[in-house]
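To make this tangible, this section ends with a sequence with its structure tokens:
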Amino acid sequence: LRLAAGLDSMVLGEPQILGQMKQAVKEAEAAGALGTTLHQLFQRSFSVAKEVRSSTEIGSHSISMAAAAVRLAGQLFEDLARTRVLFVGAGEMIELTATHFAAKTPRHMAVANRTLERGEKLATRFGAEAVRLADLPERLHEFDIVVSCTASSLPLIGLGAVERALKKRKHRPMFMVDLAVPRDIEPEVAQLDDVYLYTVDELAQ
């Protein structure tokens, strides 16, 4: 119940874990591997999570982080309407952050996700481009702003990839936000000139 409600998340109340649990239940049901007891247990946990979210302000923390990301990007780029924004992942946190950025009408938005179909679904909602995760290293230089939040156990964006992207950008600045736990972007990236990298911990302050 604590897990579903987001009480055990690094970012209190973040909705991604609940989304992952719902997806796991869906896949287990499709495979015929979910018994009656487990089904009832999960439905109960989803119900409790909904009640916690609606009767408290636990979800507002995620909203404030999305808003903070947009505000900080606005401090680096004079006009967000002229920027190109890449979202890595297609979970609820990315959807929330994309909603905040979309309100600033950036010049171009793209969504890269491990499952292309899910990425396309989110991209369609925002009139964005769907990008294959495998194409990320070759496409990174095209974007001024990168926001990442996946469930990957290993970093998806490495130091070398960002160094190459900066070279192609002729060292125009990049604003990067890593909302994932564990990290999607290698910590060493923060040491690069022309990169402004913010993590969950920094945005939560």
Remarks:
- The chain has two domains: 2-55, 61-204.
- DSSP finds nine helices and six strands in the chain.
- The beta strands are 84-88, 108-113, 129-132, 145-148, 174-178, 195-199.
- Residues 90 and 122 are 7 Å apart (CA to CA).
